[in-house]
Each structure stands twice: as structure tokens, then as C-alpha cells.
């Protein structure tokens, strides 16, 4: 039996001896986005030392991706901190001085986020005319009234009528259209403009929801998404700074880059014949501390051999390495789950979890940054919004592939120009975004320039000097931008997606329980050695846990939802081991 060497603890401390003899619980986190980093950080802070984060790509951050060009930082992914009151992302940024250079104009309180609240949105038609400001304001007030109605179905448990097809888009389009037509004061020409504006607003809304169309978003569930009070904030130095702050407390050896996972083999111990044979990791153990960023004096990983007992979970990587674990926290996107769930888990996922994956929605929202030598827009303009007059009677937001550019709802002006230069940020979503991703930069720049010339009525607008764009839909490690509640789904599906495997009553901590933790390191508590084994009995609890923005019922689609979901899953394990320790006290 391995002896217990002194490391500052009492030699007769049964927990310290037991941990060195038996080994700490081994936790593998799949994905180094906000959810994965938050989970790993929480576990490490509570004394878990056998933690590995597997990141498929060559960078951390997930759907946060800040790109520095010259002196400016552009966000291909998450851009705004949505709300400040109680938002952990906001408090992390504020506490570390990341918002000191955020201008007043970048603190938007509007429902739709802009790069600046200063100035006005210029609504332009495809005939090169600007829609009068009073018409825009009247329509905006009307649309927002109807938007507020869409929230009431969930919040007040109002029944959804059959005509709406339980769709936010169908309900909104018909309700706004009827009100416009019933207005006795507007001339027909104004009514036509307002009817055409419906489609533009729904395109913006679709980009915000990351759906192909608001027609696909559930009306009965729409109001469950919860907005945190307070302004939306831009981080001038880049949203990646938040990611870097989370990663600061994680030793370098914990995060393994370029490590895509092929399959998670779970429930191994209760099904002896099933599952891959585990090759022991000896000298080449990828979790050994190399001395770079690690903590000196750490115990070597393990304490129990991979060969001498059956682990409940084995993570099979694309490079054929088999990593045994007690628990795996899966943080991959809903898009990846939709594409790979049949091969990503062995045995297969329970029927209700598969159904939840099918019912919930995820789409692609992409940005197109265009940099110009000089601005062709006025200093009062904060965005250029595109209204196609021939869409006044349209009831669809789907276009043939050759007309993909019609899904671009407009371009925002990046603010302030002293930081960014003269840059516009275009927005496109859905299937048309996937078509855009297949085009080369030259083609996209050419089409966007032609659109800007057409809608502004200025044929002399030059091509941009530089283009930068995202491609979240075709990226195999994301397969989309963020999730939404699709028609036919509800918050209950989010709960089912988040439920740990295997399903068992032995896990005390239910979904949504508080993540508040007691001070001190959980795994430095003193308790009898026999309480160290969390896997007593035939069912090993919480083998596979799920986090990521799509698993947060109130804050799906947000960075704070992702972070909180990672902390939530870490808290499940922290609570489980705390309970087991206390059983023997």
C-alpha cells in the first residue's frame, strides 16, 4: 500500500491518506469555452485536483472570439455583456477594470443591442430612399407593443390560438400587419412602407435569437428567456479578456488543446463486457504537470491505476487516446449534439434527452465587418437598416441560395471611430448565413458594396479595404451560434438536456439548485476514508453532466448563461462529494 507522506497535513488525517491511496475523483471537461472554464475553475477552487479540460480547437473561448486587427479588437462571437445587475460576466469585467474605457455610447439600454446608443438608425429602402424618421418611430412603437405581447403567453400562461401556429414570427407579422391596415390615418404609401418594415424587424429579431426565422421560435415559451436588468456593455479590449480571466486560475497542464473527442463511453462499470479496453497512461500522461503554469509540489495524478479497476466513464479522443474518468462534463454546443449525438455517446442517450435535442433549436448568426478608408455615412448615423419594399406582403424569411444577401438586415456603425476606424458590422442569420460562409471574401465584399450603393442611393461608395467575417455554422466544433426554444419545445426540454446521466435518485442536487458554496477546500475536510468512494453500489451517479448556454432555462443564448451552467455542474459534483464526506462524520 502506498504510504502517506507529509505535505503539511496531519499524518493521521484519514482524508489525506485516503486521497493519496485511492486517488481523487477524476473529472474530464469537454470544451474550453465559458461553461467549461467556469466548471474547471470552480472544481479546482474547491480542491479537486484531477481535472482535465479537452478542447478540440487550437484556442480557448468557444463562441467568444476576439480578433485584433491593428489597434482595434473585433468580436466574431459574443459582443455584449447583456445586463449588469447580478450578471457574473459584468461583475468579473468590472472588478478587473475591463469597462474603464467603455464610453457612455457603448452602454446601451435598448432591447436590441447596438454598438452605440448615440445617433439614429437610418432605415433605407432598396430604391435608395430614406424612410422618414416619424414613420420609423411610429412603426417601432407599434412593433414593440406587439413584442411585449409575445412575452405574455408564457409569463401569464395565456393560451395560444391556432392561427399563430405557436410561432413568434407568425403571431408578430399578422398582429402588426392587421394594426397597420386598420390605421385610418396613414396613407396607403406609408402603410406599404410599414408593412415592408415588418420583415426587416423580424430579420433583426432572428439574428438576435439566432434562428433561421422567428417563425421557428416558440410563442408559448418565448417569454421564459429572462433579461438581466441594466445596460448592455461592450468590452473595448475584447470579450476574450473575460475568458482569459477565467483561465488564469487554471494550471496550464489542465487544458489540452487540439483534443477533439470521438465518443463518451459511460456506464462502463455496470456493464462489464461493454466499452473499450483502457490503455494505461504512464509516462506520457497528458495531465502531468510540465512545470509551465502548474503548482509546485502537486501530487502526481491518480493514486489508483487505470488498469486495476473499472472506471465508470471512458472518453475516447480522435487521436485514439482513451481517458478514464469518474465524471465528464459535456459543454459542446447544441449544434454539435444535434449532429453527433448518435455516435458521441455509448450507450445511446435516453429517449427523452434525444427528444429534447431534436426539439430545441440552434441557428447561425454571422457578422460581416467591412472597413472603409473614409465614412460615407453621416456622423449622426449609428446603423444602416435595409428595407425591401417588395417584401410588404411577404410571409417568409427564406430566400433561394442566389439571393442569400437579402437576409442581411443591415449594418451597424462601430463606435467610437477613434478606436475602430471606419467600420460597419453587418448581420445575417439562418440558412442564408450558411450560404454566405461558402462564398469567398471577395464575393461577399462585392455583394455588400452593391447593397450599400443600392440602399443609400450612392453609386460611388468604394469597396471596403478589408473584410472580416464569422463562420459559426460551418465550424464543425460549433455548428451554430446559440440556442432558442423552437416551436414544439419549452423550458422543460432545456431541463431534460441538462439532466446528468445516468438518471438516478442518488444525486441529491437537482437541476437549478443553488451554486453557493461553503468557504474552504472541500477536499481538505477531514472525514473517514470509506466515505471517499462516490461510486458505492451498482449505479455510478453523475457520470455525464451537461452544461453550456443551451442548458440554462432562463439565460440560454447568453455568455452569463454559459458561465452559470458550468458553475452549476461543478456544484453538483462539489455537493455530491461533500455529502459523501459528511456521511462518515
TrEMBL record:
Compositionally biased tracts (Basic and acidic residues): 274-289, 298-310
Amine oxidase domain span: 34-268, 313-574
Entry keyword annotation includes Ribonucleoprotein: no
Extent of Polar residues compositional bias: 505-518
Any one GO CC term of the record: nuclear membrane
InterPro entries: Amino_oxidase, FAD/NAD-bd_sf, Flavin_monoamine_oxidase
Keywords from the named record: FAD, Flavoprotein
GO biological process, alphabetically ordered: spermine catabolic process
Gene Ontology molecular function: polyamine oxidase activity
Annotated segments matching region Disordered: 272-310, 505-538
Name this polypeptide is given: Spermine oxidase isoform X1
Pfam families, sorted: Amino_oxidase
Cofactor(s) in the UniProt record: FAD
Amino acid at each position: 500500500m502506498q504510504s502517506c507522506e507529509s505535505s503539511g497535513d496531519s499524518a493521521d488525517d484519514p482524508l489525506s491518506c485516503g486521497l493519496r491511496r485511492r486517488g481523487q475523483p477524476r473529472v474530464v471537461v469537454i470544451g474550453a469555452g465559458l461553461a467549461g472554464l467556469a466548471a474547471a475553475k470552480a472544481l479546482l477552487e474547491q480542491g479537486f485536483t484531477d481535472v482535465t479540460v479537452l478542447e478540440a480547437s487550437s484556442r480557448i473561448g468557444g463562441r467568444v472570439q476576439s480578433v485584433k486587427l491593428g489597434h482595434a479588437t473585433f468580436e466574431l462571437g459574443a459582443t455584449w455583456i447583456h445586463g449588469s445587475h447580478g450578471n457574473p460576466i459584468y461583475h468579473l469585467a468590472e472588478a478587473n477594470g475591463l469597462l474603464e474605457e467603455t464610453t457612455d455610447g457603448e452602454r446601451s439600454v435598448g432591447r436590441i443591442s447596438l454598438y452605440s446608443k448615440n445617433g439614429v438608425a437610418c432605415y433605407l429602402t432598396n430604391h435608395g430612399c430614406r424612410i422618414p424618421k416619424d414613420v420609423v418611430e411610429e412603426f417601432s412603437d407599434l412593433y414593440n407593443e406587439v413584442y411585449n405581447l409575445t412575452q405574455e403567453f408564457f409569463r401569464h400562461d395565456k393560451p395560444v390560438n391556432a392561427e399563430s401556429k405557436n410561432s413568434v414570427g407568425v403571431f408578430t407579422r399578422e398582429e402588426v400587419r392587421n394594426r397597420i391596415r386598420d390605421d385610418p390615418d396613414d396613407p396607403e404609401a406609408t402603410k406599404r412602407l410599414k408593412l415592408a418594415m415588418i420583415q426587416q424587424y423580424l430579420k433583426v429579431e432572428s439574428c438576435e435569437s439566432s434562428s433561421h426565422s422567428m417563425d421557428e421560435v416558440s410563442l408559448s415559451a418565448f417569454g421564459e428567456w429572462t433579461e438581466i436588468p441594466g445596460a448592455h456593455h461592450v468590452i473595448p479590449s475584447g470579450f476574450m479578456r473575460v475568458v482569459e480571466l477565467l483561465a488564469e486560475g487554471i494550471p496550464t497542464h489542465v487544458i489540452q488543446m487540439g483534443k477533439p473527442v470521438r465518443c463518451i463511453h459511460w456506464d462502463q462499470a455496470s456493464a462489464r463486457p461493454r466499452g473499450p479496453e483502457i490503455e494505461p497512461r504512464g509516462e506520457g500522461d497528458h495531465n502531468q504537470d510540465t512545470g509551465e503554469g502548474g503548482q509546485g509540489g502537486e501530487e502526481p495524478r491518480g493514486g489508483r491505476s487505470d488498469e486495476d479497476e473499472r472506471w465508470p466513464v471512458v472518453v475516447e479522443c480522435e487521436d485514439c487516446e482513451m481517458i478514464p474518468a469518474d465524471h465528464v462534463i459535456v459543454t459542446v454546443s447544441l449544434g454539435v449534439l444535434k449532429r453527433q449525438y448518435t455516435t458521441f455517446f455509448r450507450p445511446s442517450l435516453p429517449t427523452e434527452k434525444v427528444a429534447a435535442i431534436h426539439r430545441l433549436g440552434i441557428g447561425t448568426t454571422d457578422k460581416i465587418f467591412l472597413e472603409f478608408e473614409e465614412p460615407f455615412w453621416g456622423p449622426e448615423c449609428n446603423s444602416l437598416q435595409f428595407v425591401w419594399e417588395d417584401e410588404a406582403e411577404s410571409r417568409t424569411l427564406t430566400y433561394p441560395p442566389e439571393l442569400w444577401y437579402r437576409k442581411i438586415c443591415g449594418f451597424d456603425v462601430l463606435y467610437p471611430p477613434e478606436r475602430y476606424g471606419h467600420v460597419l458590422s453587418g448581420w445575417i442569420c439562418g440558412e442564408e448565413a450558411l450560404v454566405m460562409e461558402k462564398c469567398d471574401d471577395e464575393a461577399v465584399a462585392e455583394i455588400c458594396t452593391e447593397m450599400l450603393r443600392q440602399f443609400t442611393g450612392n453609386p460611388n461608395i468604394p469597396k471596403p479595404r478589408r473584410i472580416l467575417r464569422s463562420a459559426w455554422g460551418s465550424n464543425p466544433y460549433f455548428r451554430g451560434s446559440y440556442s432558442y426554444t423552437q416551436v414544439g419545445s419549452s423550458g422543460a426540454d432545456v431541463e431534460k438536456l441538462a439532466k446528468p446521466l445516468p438518471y438516478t435518485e442518488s444525486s441529491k442536487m437537482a437541476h437549478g439548485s443553488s451554486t453557493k458554496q461553503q468557504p474552504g477546500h472541500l477536499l481538505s475536510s477531514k472525514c473517514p476514508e470509506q466515505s471517499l468512494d462516490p461510486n458505492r453500489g451498482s449505479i455510478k451517479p453523475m457520470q455525464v453532466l451537461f452544461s453550456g448556454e443551451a442548458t440554462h432555462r432562463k439565460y440560454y443564448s447568453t455568455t452569463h448563461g454559459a458561465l452559470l451552467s458550468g458553475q452549476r455542474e461543478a456544484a453538483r459534483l462539489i455537493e455530491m462529494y461533500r455529502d459523501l464526506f459528511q456521511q462518515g462524520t
